Amino acid sequence: MDGGDDHSPVSAWGSSLCSMPARTGHDYLQSLARMKPRIFLHGGRVADVRGEMAFQGALQSMAELYDLQHDPRFREFMLYSSPTTGDPVHVGFQPATSRAVLVAKRKAFKLRTDYTFGFMGRTMDFMNQMVTNMYLDRARFGLRGQQFADNVARYYEHVRDNDLFLTHALINPQIDRSRTSAEQEDAFLHLGKVRDTSDGIIVRGAKMLATMAPIAEEILCFPFGAGVAEGDDAYAVAFAIPLDTPGLELVCRESVASPPSSRFDHPLSSRFEEMDCIVVFNDVLIPWDRVFIDGGPGSRAVANAAGGGMGITGGVQTAARMLSQMEFFCGLAMKLADTIAITGFVHVQEKLGEMLSHLEVARSVFYGSEAMAFEGPDGLWSNAPLGQGAFHLQTMRIYRRFVEIVQLLGGGGFFYAPTEADFSNPESRTLIDKYARGRAGVSAEERVRLFKLAWDATGSSFGQRMQQYVTYYSGDPIRLTAAYYVGYDKDPLLDLVGRALGDTDSAHLPISPDDPGVPPPRREPRDPHAISAQYPTSSQVRPRAEH
Ligand SMILES: Cc1cc2nc3c(=O)[nH]c(=O)nc-3n(C[C@H](O)[C@H](O)[C@H](O)COP(=O)(O)OP(=O)(O)OC[C@H]3O[C@@H](n4cnc5c(N)ncnc54)[C@H](O)[C@@H]3O)c2cc1C
Q1: Residues 189 and 101 grouped into a single domain
Q2: Does ligand 1 have an atom closer than 6 angstroms to the CB of 535?
Q3: How far is the CA of 224 from the centre of ligand 1 (A)?
Q4: Number of folded domains in the chain?
Q5: Which helix (H) or strand (E) holds 312?
Q6: Does one domain contain both 298 and 346?
């Protein structure tokens, strides 16, 4: 690790932020107006994110999501009083001191995911849950010094009491996945610590993706899951800073909702496109009070331990998003089938039945995890995590199947769907009205709008990105599923086999509990090597000197 440029002290707490509880959409947009992040998009620099066409849909939707918490119909369960300021803040931050709090949180999460039909995965609620998890599990950050746990607690309060919108960047750029961070060709391809200063740590390198970064206010960086490899202490850095911190640069991908994008032609992508960016840190100073893991000796162990506890409350928000999306897909598929009168065919009924049965299992797990909630020794309530975790693993596959079914039912119908402009042209409209209509009673405009919705959900660039997003939502599905097996308490199931073989007597016959809300055995953070996690540990890693 070499030295970097000197930096004058900065306060990441932000000069412009006074306490702003439970914001409106207007408050959020005003806050963005004060920021000057360095963003590259489509070959140029973005001067003002609020004026950039590619971000309009997401900006508008985010503003609407902020407004929801002030709607008199919802604010009673969406807000609670900040224990620090007494002001109303979002319930997602509230530690669940009772089952009733779990219910309020679930209602608040589901309301916002329903608002976007689950098509915005990285709204404020996603990161608010991550910050709340970190706070509830902050002792793990204190392993290398109490000040780091205190920083986590202060940051949680800061995000809660200012209702900030965060993005996150966990994953290192792929570059060469057969090597650890330290083994990459350049020591700072992956984000790592360059050195300590009296003001904080200097970091350099990149993280692979940060969704919504251009229109977020802060970025939280953390090493992914429990996957920091041996020898990578300097890459085990965790911190949060404003997105316009000097030295921080964002490089956007091509928009999947390139303007002009009307709601008629692109009903989902015109509203819910969530930009993804590469995040580059050019010797960025992270002030000490924003450092959660400092990249010093032993930081790898801290990161792997802290990463293991990231899912304490996040599962409900994640499951709410997926459930909203499954509900939408079931409605979409049935409406589409009805529009062209194919619901009478048995294979169509079988496919729709397949979707609905997946949906009902999902609903049972979603609400069942609440019915199985339990109170921990610290007096905090948690939803039953194992079913939620399993649901999450299943949905990576189910989502692909839902996409496939909608496409199988739609056939070529997606492609005789002229544009809004063609409907406005009286000459083409006559043709369209006659030949592009659906079954008796369904006009051409109704059929075309519906098929455009279905294509945006499944086949457009937006729909395809969404599918990839669901698959890789929280990591590589293969290793996540393997980790589920590795971390599972297998003994009760193995005992059954012993009884069947006559090795144990029937005194071991289990009685199903009166109260299903029994805490599962605590799963310790997984050993990365047990599932060949983030980095391979054997044959694929070659010493750098050989290359
Ligand atoms: C649309 C989208 C948005 C995203 N947004 C964010 C975001 O906002 N913030 C963020 O931090 N991340 C984000 N991600 C990244 C996401 O977290 C990663 O995609 C996910 O963790 C998987 O990592 P990867 O993409 O690097 O795949 P890799 O880990 O590189 O995997 C690629 C393939 O290689 C295999 N493989 C690689 N290494 C191993 C190994 N050691 N053992 C076995 N198999 C291996 C995998 O099984 C897989 O088949 C986003 C991803 C998508 C698709």
Answers
A1: yes
A2: yes
A3: 10
A4: 2
A5: none
A6: no
Residues 377 and 232 in one domain: no
Q: Is the CB of 91 under 6 A from ligand 1?
A: no
What separation in Å is there between the alpha carbon of 89 and the centre of ligand 1? 33
* DSSP label at residue 329: H
- Condensed to tens digits (0 to 9), the pLDDT of residues 173-218 reads 999 999 999 999 999 999 999 999 999 999 999 999 999 999 999 9
Please check whether residues 320 and 304 belong to one and the same domain: no
Q: List, in order, residues 6 or more apart from 436 with CB less than 8 Å away.
A: 416, 417, 418, 444, 447, 448
- The pick from 476, 480, 538 for probing ligand 1's pocket by mutation, whose C-beta has the most ligand atoms within 8 angstroms, reads 476
Examine residue 20 and state whether it is found in any structural domain, yes or no.
no
Q: Looking at residue 53, what DSSP letter applies?
A: G
Cβ of 170 less than 6 Å from ligand 1: yes
The token duo for 526 is: 């997984």
Residues 301 and 319 in one domain: no
d(CA 248, CA 289): 18
CA distance 543 to 222: 26
Given 254, 286, 308, which residue is the final one in a domain?
308
Radius of gyration of the chain (CA): 25
217-229 residue pLDDT tens: 999 999 986 689 9
Same structural domain, 281 and 355: no
Q: From the CA of 465, give the closest atom in ligand 1.
A: 1
By CB atoms closer than 10 A (0-12, 13-18, 19+), residue 16 is exposed
Tokens of 186: 């350049």
Q: Which atom of ligand 1 is nearest to the CA of 533?
A: 41
Cα(472) to ligand 1 centroid in Å equals 6
Q: What is the CATH number of the domain that holds 52?
A: 2.40.110.10
Model confidence over 496-525: pLDDT tens digits? 898 889 887 776 788 888 888 877 665 544
Query: Which protein residue's CA is at the shortest distance from atom 14 of ligand 1?
Result: 209
Q: State the distance from the centre of ligand 1 to the C-alpha of 476, rounded, in angstroms.
A: 5
- Confidence bin at 312 (pLDDT 50/70/90): low
* Cβ of residue 209 lying under 6 Å from some atom of ligand 1: yes
Question: Does the C-beta of 60 come closer than 6 Å to ligand 1?
Answer: no
Distance CA 105, CA 93 (A): 9
Provide the whole-model pTM: 0.92
Last residue of a domain, one of 308, 327, 352: 308
Q: Is 462 in the pocket of ligand 1 (CB under 6 A)?
A: no
Nearest to 168 by CA among 220, 113, 128, 223: 220
Residue 106 contacts by C-beta under 8 Å, 6 or more apart in sequence? 316, 320, 370
* Same-domain status, 157 and 240: yes
* 211 strand-pairing partners: 276
Q: Report yes or no on 497 lying in a domain.
A: no
Instruction: With CA atoms as reference, report the closest residue to 106 among 275, 289, 320, 308.
Output: 320
Residue 536 belongs to some domain of the structure: no
**From the CA of 169, how far away is ligand 1's center (Å)?**
12
254 & 304 share domain: yes
Here the CATH number for the domain that contains residue 443 is 1.20.140.10
- 511 inside domain: no
Ligand 1 pocket residue status of 432, Cβ below 6 Å: no
The domain of 97 spans 25-308
